[in-house]
């Protein structure tokens, strides 16, 4: 078996060795592909599966790859290249299994805590499609990268608020709170009788270990996941604009290798986190030293520290503003001095801030709260301005080359960036409020978090109300659509006895499948409501900070009470949401059914390289796409055989991306079969610059042939909607689902409604695969138009 595995793993080279060469014509025939050997490379979709299920055989052998992602064959097919006569008229099935890239043990559920980073990274790739306007395109990427930087600062600032302000400054400095939490006694100046750690500056320096450790953890996870998932180099090739026009960036040699950019952004974001902690520790001490009569040496040192922090912040922003990705070539360079020097310089400033803050100041006492309102208010204001600027840039790009199918008329990126900022704000505000409630059981011992964070927590109930209203409207629309679909289902099966229950189930499944097409409306309304509520929270925080609490209670009692109720409810909701978040995350990684439920959203998010935020979850496609590209290129080059890459769901996206990465000559020898594919329905609408109509049309022209299968009951897959004659040539008419309405001779039991699964069980799948293989057969060339097109779906087949 090992010999057979070795032969198959080398692309069948043992079958073309010296014995074949001495065999004369037969050896030459095998080398140039006239043996008729065909390969069907299967790529599974969301949720994953096993090689045995994909190949329909319990006996499988790994051909190439490792425990994370590998290519498998049936044991009897391991040495198929050496026996081409046994495979005439049928392909050699081969399965690429990549599910371990996105699933594993329950600890990966912690990646869900990085959701804001993943969402803002998505916004980078949602740029509208355009021609020219290079500077505008670069401005779009710059704005998203700056938005990602604000999220890192916000996360670290929230950790500083919890550890430094609430714990070390307020609770440890207040007798009532310190008595409630005896483990803080050594930090309390009252309970420790003036111990060494009870000095305010030393308390702050000790508490700074928490946000600093968080920053270090994010740096480590980013570096570790890069090495584990994204360090695979794609095939090195030269991009020739004449032979490979490249109407999508997915075909560029360096698209799936962003090491240089990720390393540069990782250094900048790590430095930004350390500088944020240094500012949180050093600023209170510098403010105390600037008081009248303060020590002059410490005052000078404080100003020097502040100046150094400002210079460091400017350096971080400058690094983030540098040009983004270099995709036209495989960029193996690494900015060593920048990648190492910037975090080390920030670490040195952080250490200096600790020493400066910990200096003895006998007259310094902690009272009230640290002035975090300016920090969090400034972050919220900058994020709002960045989102508005991003919307203007996206509108300019979309107006230059309008796309009727683009989500939210090209504003999908700004809307998603707004949601990322909202997630970060809600998580930071909610966690700070929950910690404050936990520390201050009586509600009177400490002042609590900054007013703005409290107002951000109060935004959650009205935002949740907007989402519930949208859900109710969508439910009503779905119910009405299901009633209308009943007549369509019955008219599609004339002469058969009606079954009201079965008709309702089919109609309801079709109606539910259309909810995917309503997602842009849901995101647009939610994002707009979030922007308005966030602005209201910022204004409310400013007003509350300026108006005394007694006056607010007296003159605006109703408004004040409503705000307090919303803040308390929001605090509990964020705590409940956090628990549910982690619980569902763990279940999604352990339970296959739960993983399929939310898997499509997660797999879409982690499909894209980390180009806007280095702390986002790792990109599995930077491993999967090179795997598929190398396998297809080496197999076709070694055997000269014909190849059909067959992708289901997310596997079809990987298949298309891998096909774009091939040399044009190799691309012409590959057929593409997609089923249940979100290429146009999700990726084409939300990522028009990379999967828009021009990109999909170019894929149809560049591969030898392409067929796409979908069902009206499928909530994920859909037609490609290519313009002109390309549409019928690629899309087959919607498959029947269920295969039979009632009981028949072939199906005496009721056929199930398959939806997004089991496309291979449909006879149309076998028919389309046979046609693709016949077209690729080298003995009898088949013109492109002889692949019999089926009628294109009607305009109302998919809303």
From TrEMBL:
Keyword rRNA processing: no
Spans traversing the lipid bilayer: 139-159, 204-223, 267-288, 300-321, 342-359, 379-398, 410-432, 452-475, 519-543, 563-585
Keyword Transmembrane helix attributed: yes
Keywords on record: Membrane, Transmembrane, Transmembrane helix
Compositionally biased tracts (Basic and acidic residues): 16-33
Region annotated Disordered, chain positions: 1-33, 780-799
Protein name: Integral membrane protein
